[in-house]
Amino acid sequence: MFRSLFLIAIVSLLSGCSSGTWGWYVVDPSTPAGQRNLWFLIDGLYYTIALSVTAILISIFLGLIVALPGLARQRPPRMFNRVYVELVRAVPILVLILWVYYGLPQVADISISVFWAGVLALAISDSAFQAEIFRAGIQSIDRGQHEAAHSISLTYADKMRYVILPQAIKRILPALGNQLVYMLKMSSLVSVIGMEELTRRANELVVTEYRPLEIYTVLVLEYLVLILVVSAGVRWLELRLAANDTR
Q1: Measured CA distances, 180 to 39, 52, 57, 112, 233 (Å)
Q2: Angle 44-67/114-139 helices, nearest 10 degrees?
Q3: Which of 24, 69, 132, 204 is the most buried (most CB within 10 A)?
């Protein structure tokens, strides 16, 4: 389905921009060379999606772990939450990607692939935002829900698992969807360390074809279609959960 939508968008673009000195032939789906270039670009979708989904799942897990101390009554756990969030948010994501890939192997004496360096950097950077999202979502749950859980002798873990988090996740779902869209866009920065995702593929094709306008236009369309599909999926999930609540 995605490939069909993408090719339709390309054909429409080519039909309106076929004149002048623009070299749309490099991405013309009606020619063998254009088809090869298009599939070369589209194949980068796998790494973009795999990188973003893996990173967002890890960042959600880390964000929840960091968020819970921020809800404690004791000062030290709250300080841990605040220091982590402020420090991580202060580091530009591009700098973090470069440090994880080039610096972490020297500091920790480990070998890390381009893919996992990108995942780790994106996940750490996003976990600070996820922590604040989870903290706000949990705090928005009525105090009576906590008291009801205590009244039936639920442990803290069971209270969070069965009572608080299911309600909080429904409220923060739009924010989580926004973070996934953000992650898809920020994954383009991993191209600086050689990750063969959408942006890296486009850069490589520009070097061989010398047609940056045409190729980067296709790149814009790729991200546009991808993010529209993800946004539609998030909205569908929101409506589905809302419909379940009304039953």
Answers
A1: 25, 7, 9, 24, 11
A2: 40
A3: 24
| Token couple for 128 | 């600070």
pTM: 0.84
Q: What is the DSSP string of 177-242?
A: HHHHHHHHHHGGGGGGGT--SHHHHHHHHHHHH--HHHHHHHHHHHHHHHHHHHHHHHHHHHHHHH
The residue to which tokens 């490939």 are assigned: 3
Distance of CA 112 to the CA centre of its chain: 21
Token representation of residue 234: 């998030």
Find where tokens 């298009």 sit: 38
Which tens digits make up the pLDDT trace of 61-81? 999 999 999 888 888 889 999
Asked whether the beta carbons of 194 and 66 are under 8 A apart, the reply is: no
Among 129, 137, 123, which Cα is nearest to 71's? 137
| Amino acid of residue 208 | T
Amino acid at 203: N
Q: What is the pLDDT of residues 191-216, one digit of tens each?
A: 999 888 889 999 999 988 888 888 89
Burial (CB < 10 A; 0-12, 13-18, 19+), residue 123, is buried
Length of the chain: 247
